[in-house]
From TrEMBL:
Residues 105-347 form the PPM-type phosphatase domain. Pfam families: PP2C (PF00481), Sulfotransfer_1 (PF00685). Keywords: Glycoprotein, Hydrolase, Magnesium, Manganese, Metal-binding, Protein phosphatase, Transferase. This is protein-serine/threonine phosphatase. 3'-phosphoadenylyl sulfate binds at residues 504, 512. The lineage of its organism: Eukaryota, Viridiplantae, Chlorophyta, core chlorophytes, Trebouxiophyceae. It comes from the Eukaryota. Its cofactor is Mn(2+); Mg(2+). It comes from [Myrmecia] bisecta.
């Protein structure tokens, strides 16, 4: 009888409990499509695919296709693992309204790992690439990660058989690609479990595949592994373990074979995500779990981006990432390294409208634009019904808890937030008005600012129906606290407003802001993860940056914002460093508002004593705290670090940067926040 499986999110290597449990990690596993292998040689290729990071416990590879060429398939099954050299492929197709083209430059790198005890092992990763799956214009990529004694057999069988089954299925020929993949994944899984030559009781393979359809649509089956909560703490992915066995756990929800894992909920049916490629999509990266175990999405994609800009080829980038991953395995596990496989694709997507596209498609695009424009227009037409400006502001600083505080306050019957606008997902909380959401020339108009807030019906409902004493509305945007010209503009619009500043130990705040920007896909050219070099320029403000801040310092009340402000303010480290110098940022507000209009909240105090801090806020803004029922809410904008840590040398440098500002803040407020004991980012 096979040993029981247990799910234990707290441990990485061994579980002591023997109770069977259902383990649902994240999206690891079962998907692949490709025709029979024709080559094991190193190749190099190009094709275009989007800036997407797909991950799973499987090997990786990539390929591309020419619409006028026969079906091409590249795969590797060798024990040492062979990659695919740099290749280039062009996929072209046309529809009724557009001419589409995707050029992909790609390469595959793979390397076998090391078993417990430091012994070399066979590479159980397998990858495949089909340039024209089923002699169509569809290109297929796949990575498979075998596990257990028979793992290599299973991943190899999938590479050989799955593509043929998918391309020959009626659903595939009818262009029902998700149906085709699902049916054949399940069929392959059943065949593997029935095979007399494979003992899959404790062996199987995960998989991730990408199907590029007719040059533009990308269908990804299975992918990234998420985080889970255990006793209120974020932990790594749940893992399936053999009880009392000193072997690595498996992080997966989907796999081929492995009948024991299937008994606790591991399935073969894939999960899909479909993406329409756009010209902005530049990279596609498929990785096995050996790379993702200790490297985050952001680290990988930033590395790919930086290396590509430096002129590196896909195979060179893949080899570099594998080496970095193996270094982390040795550092963390000492005598265990997982197999590592990665496909790196550089994409060039072309979308050109036809000169005379059909009316329906054009009508659809026009309707979409009309809907985007209609909401702001309706907002402006109803300005007579929108007399409200904020009674108070949650100015805060980035990553200091402004979103969480706003979410709590909006649950009070006497408090209303923004009415929201259609083109930005955060505008239900923060207006971004003073930093130019309506354009550089319109960051001072009271009428435009009123359009963000609810109509008089909201106030009537609160005061007449709900019988609150006085209804209030607010704006909760952290950016005005960082910009020197906003204090005077806020005072001109709302001279009696209350101001709530939320502050966080600035070293942790800056690092958390970096992680947020990276998760949002911001093009950052710097990182706080890397060590400080002797000639490090990250912390030095450039002449262009200094000139911008000098211009912002002297900006008049109705002057337009500088054209280069968004790029510098949102992507430069110098901007975050200025935001974290709280004493200098608060000073302009102290000049135009009386002291009694200020409230300062420490982020840690808010997190540790949320209910008590809310009571103080209600008293400060003048609403009845007894009308509020406190509930714990999900985190507002909680940053996903995914294993990233600030380098100690960077932390020390940042402490030096903020030391003087922190001391001046303590003196200014007459309060010591004890930030010398730096919050760990």
């Amino acid at each position: 009888m096979a040993p029981p499986l247990v799910a234990d999110p707290r441990r990485k290597r061994l579980s002591d409990t023997g109770n069977p449990a259902q383990a649902y990690a994240a999206k690891a596993a079962a998907s692949v499509v490709l025709p029979k292998s024709k080559s094991k040689t190193d190749l190099t290729g190009s094709s275009r695919i989007p800036h997407i990071l797909a991950e799973s416990g499987t090997a990786v590879e990539l390929a591309t296709g020419h619409p006028d060429a026969a079906e091409r398939c590249f795969s590797t099954l060798s024990s040492s693992g062979s990659g695919l050299g740099d290749r280039t492929a062009l996929l072209q197709s046309t529809d009724a309204s557009q001419v589409l083209g995707v050029t992909v430059t790609y390469g595959v790198s793979t390397q076998a790992g090391m078993d417990p005890g430091g012994f070399d092992k066979d590479n159980q990763d397998a990858w495949l690439v089909v340039e024209n799956l089923g002699n169509t214009d569809n290109m297929f990529l796949g990575v498979f990660d075998g596990h257990g004694a028979e793992g290599r057999k299973i991943s190899s069988a999938l590479v050989r058989q799955l593509p043929h089954l998918v391309s020959g299925s009626p659903a595939y020929k009818a262009q029902k690609f998700q149906t085709a993949l699902t049916e054949q994944f399940l069929e392959c899984n059943n065949a593997i479990q029935r095979a007399s030559t494979i003992n899959c009781a404790l062996s199987g393979s995960t998989a991730i595949t990408a199907l590029l359809q007719s040059g533009r649509k990308l269908l990804v089956a299975n992918g990234r592994v998420g985080s889970y909560m255990y006793n209120g703490q974020t932990v790594g992915p749940l893992r399936v373990w053999l009880a009392n066995q000193d072997i690595p756990g498996l992080s997966m929800t989907r796999a081929f074979g492995d009948t024991v894992a299937a008994s606790v909920g591991i399935i073969a049916e894939p999960e899909f995500k479909e993406i329409t490629l756009q010209p902005r999509d530049k990279y596609l990266v498929l990785c096995s779990d050996g790379i993702f175990e200790f490297m985050t999405n952001q680290q990988i994609m930033q590395t790919v981006h930086d290396k590509a800009l430096a002129g590196c080829k896909p195979t060179d980038i893949g080899a570099y990432l594998i080496e970095r991953a193996r270094e982390q395995w040795i550092k963390e596990e000492e005598d265990v390294i997982d197999d590592c496989t990665i496909i790196v694709c550089m994409l060039d997507v072309t979308v050109k409208p036809k000169a005379h596209g059909p009316a329906p498609a054009g009508h659809s695009r026009q309707l979409q634009r009309s809907n985007t424009i209609a909401a702001p227009v309706r907002r402006l037409l109803t300005l007579p019904l929108r007399p409200h400006l904020p009674s108070f502001y949650i100015l805060g600083f980035p990553k200091s808890g402004t979103t969480s505080l706003a979410n709590h306050l909006k649950r009070h019957p006497a408090i209303g937030g923004l009415a929201g606008l259609p083109w930005h997902e955060t505008l239900s909380k923060e207006s971004h008005y003073f930093n130019g959401v309506f354009g550089a020339k319109h960051a001072y108009s009271a009428a435009l600012y009123r359009s963000f807030f609810p109509t008089i019906l909201s106030r009537w409902w609160a005061e007449v129906v709900l019988k609150v004493d006085e209804w209030k509305c607010f704006d909760a945007c952290p950016m005005p606290a960082c910009l020197p010209y906003t204090a005077a503009r806020i005072a001109a619009l709302t001279p009696n407003a209350k101001l709530i500043f939320m502050m966080r130990e600035p070293v942790a705040g800056v690092f958390s802001a970096e992680m947020m920007f990276r998760n949002m896909g911001m093009p950052l050219s710097w990182s706080l993860v890397d060590a400080v070099a002797a000639d490090d320029e990250r912390f030095q403000e450039t002449a262009e940056e200094a000139a911008l801040w000098k211009q912002l310092d002297s900006l008049g009340p109705t002057e337009p914002l500088p054209d280069n402000m968004p790029e510098i303010f949102y992507t430069r480290l110098s901007s975050l460093l200025r935001c974290g110098q709280y004493a200098d940022r608060i000073a302009p507000f102290l000049k135009v508002f009386p002291p009694e209009n200020f409230m300062f909240i420490d982020f840690k105090e808010f997190i540790n004593n949320t209910e008590q801090v809310l009571e103080q806020v209600f008293e400060f803004i003048g609403v009845d705290a007894t009308r509020f029922q406190y509930e714990e809410l999900p985190p507002g904008m909680k940053t996903d670090y995914k294993g990233r840590r600030m380098h100690p040398s960077v932390r020390q440098r940042l402490q030096e940067v903020f030391q003087d500002s922190n001391s001046r803040l303590y003196a200014l407020l007459g309060r010591d926040f004890h930030w010398a004991d730096v919050e760990k980012a």
